[in-house]
Amino acid sequence: MKRITSRIGRRAGITAGLTALVVPMTVALGTAPAQAASCNVTTGPYQKQVEKFLGRTVDGRQSLADCKAIQAFQSKHGITPAAGYAGTITWRTMNTMLQQKAAGTNPNKDRKCPTNKGRIACVDLTRQLSWIQDGSRLKYGPVPVRTGKDGTETRTGAKKIYMRNINHWSTLYHVSMPYSQFFDGGQAFHSTTKSMWNPPGSGGCVNMRSADAKAYWNMLRNGDDVFVYGRKPGT
C-alpha cells in the first residue's frame, strides 16, 4: 500500500527593507520542508554572525533550534544543501542582504555610478543592487538583483540598452526571460521567479523580481545608459 507522508511547511518571516528592497532579517521557525536535508547540529564557522542575523541567541553554539532556523533560510533562498549549517555561502548571502539594507535611499553615496549622463541604470555587483537615477536624483530602487555567477560574470563597464523584448525566450538556456532589456551581448535585465539571493547566480544577466523588471521596462528605452561596476561576492 502506498504510504503518503505529509509535513507542515516552514514559515519564514521577512522584514521589509527600504525603497522596494526586501531583506529578510528574521525567520520564523516551523517544520523543515520535506525535501530538506537532515539538520546539521555542528557549529559552523559563521555561527555567531548567522545567529545575530536570524535574531537568535548569539552564543556561537549550534542548537537544534538554530539549525532549523538556518535551514529555513537556506530552503527559502535555494542554498544547498539546506542542512542548517552556518557556512560560507549562507553567511555571504546574509552579509549581502545587510549591505543592501545599509544602502538605504542613497545607493550612490560614493558616486561610483556616473551622475553626468542623465537617466542611467546602475548595477553594483558587490552589493547585488540596482537602481535608476537621473543625474544624481534617485528615480527607482535600489532593488536586489541576481547577477552572473563565477565563470559567467555580468560584465562591468559603461553600456547602453540596444534591444528590448517583453516576452523573450532564451535559445541558449531554454527559459523565459520576461521584460528583457539587453545591454551587453546576451546580457540583459529581465525578471525571474528565483530568489534574488539564490546562489550561485545567473548566466550573466541581471535577474530581477517581476515588479522591478516591469518598472525598468516602463522607465528605460533603447539607447539609455547602463553602468555595471564592482565584483560579486564569490566570483
TrEMBL record:
SUPFAM superfamilies: L,D-transpeptidase catalytic domain-like (SSF141523), PGBD-like (SSF47090). One of its GO terms (molecular function) is transferase activity. The active site is at 190 (proton donor/acceptor), 205 (nucleophile). The keyword Transferase applies. This is L,D-transpeptidase. Its EC number is 2.-.-.-. Keywords: Cell shape, Cell wall biogenesis/degradation, Peptidoglycan synthesis, Signal, Transferase. The lineage of its organism: Bacteria, Bacillati, Actinomycetota, Actinomycetes, Kitasatosporales. It is an enzyme of class 2 (transferase). The keyword Transferase applies. Pathway: Cell wall biogenesis; peptidoglycan biosynthesis. InterPro entries: LD-transpeptidase, LD_TPept_cat_dom, PGBD-like_sf, Transpep_catalytic_dom. It comes from Streptomyces narbonensis. It comes from the Bacteria. Gene3D superfamilies: L,D-transpeptidase catalytic domain-like (2.40.440.10). Residues 1-36 form the signal peptide. Residues 118-229 form the L,D-TPase catalytic domain.
